[in-house]
Design brief:
- The chain is mainly β and 195 residues long.
- The protein has three helices and 13 strands, in the order βββββββββββββααα.
- It has helices spanning 161-164, 169-174, 181-190; strands at 2-3, 9-12, 17-19, 22-24, 41-48, 52-58, 66-72, 74-81, 92-98, 104-107, 111-117, 121-128, 137-139.
- The longest helix has 10 residues, at 181-190.
- 36% of the residues are buried.
- The mean pLDDT is 95.
């Protein structure tokens, strides 16, 4: 696992074994993770080109860590530091996830997650550390100019009604919706022990 420029996020590019039959790779291996990851739920989305999902995050505690991979197609996957008080608050980093490199991203609790589909369609799987809980789930508008996420030019973003109505980063901060960096650090300290 290679750390990204935002603390609490990592990239994993597995070794893909190919032969005339096709390919094989280890998509997820808990022992290789830099932190404990208790699998509670697996989600799968199938989306058309231009679909933009996110920026999503959950209250901490308990938060929701995610291990995200693209099973078919290609997406621009984005991690956003939404932790109020973090040295990298408001910063984002993008990783291309696709069905060739088989790269995956591990996103810690308190970080925001979004992706845009680059291929004609894409299937994305998310392994989640906590089950979906609507009352604890929030979002920040993915096209917020203050975030200035470098979404690909020439691709018309398609948002859900919920994501289109999400607050800006400044509105979410003023409304007390964002995770606190110190609380996230304390939570991480309690959850860094690997099995």
């Amino acid at each position: 696992m290679d750390p990204l420029g935002i603390d609490g996020a990592w990239r994993h590019t597995p070794r893909v074994h190919t032969d005339p039959r096709g390919a094989f790779f280890e998509a997820f291996r808990a022992a290789d993770l830099p932190r404990r990851f208790d699998l509670a739920q697996v989600n799968c989305s199938v989306s058309a080109q231009g679909v933009l999902r996110g920026v999503h995050f959950a209250d901490v505690p308990p938060g929701q860590a995610k291990y995200v991979m693209c099973l078919a197609g290609s997406v621009m996957d984005v991690v956003v530091d939404l932790r109020a008080g973090s040295p990298t608050f408001g910063r984002w980093e993008a990783v291309t996830l696709d069905d060739e490199s088989r790269t995956a991203v591990l996103i810690g609790e308190g970080l925001g997650h979004a992706f845009m589909v680059l291929s004609p369609s894409a299937t994305v799987a998310y392994l989640c550390s906590e089950p979906y809980a609507p009352a604890r789930e929030h979002g920040v508008h993915p096209l917020d100019p203050d975030l200035s996420i470098g979404w690909p030019a020439g691709v018309e973003p398609v948002l859900s009604e919920k994501d289109a109505k999400a607050p800006t980063l400044a509105e979410a901060l003023a409304g007390g919706l964002l995770p606190d960096h110190r609380a996230c650090e304390e939570f991480y300290a309690d959850h860094t022990t690997l099995r």
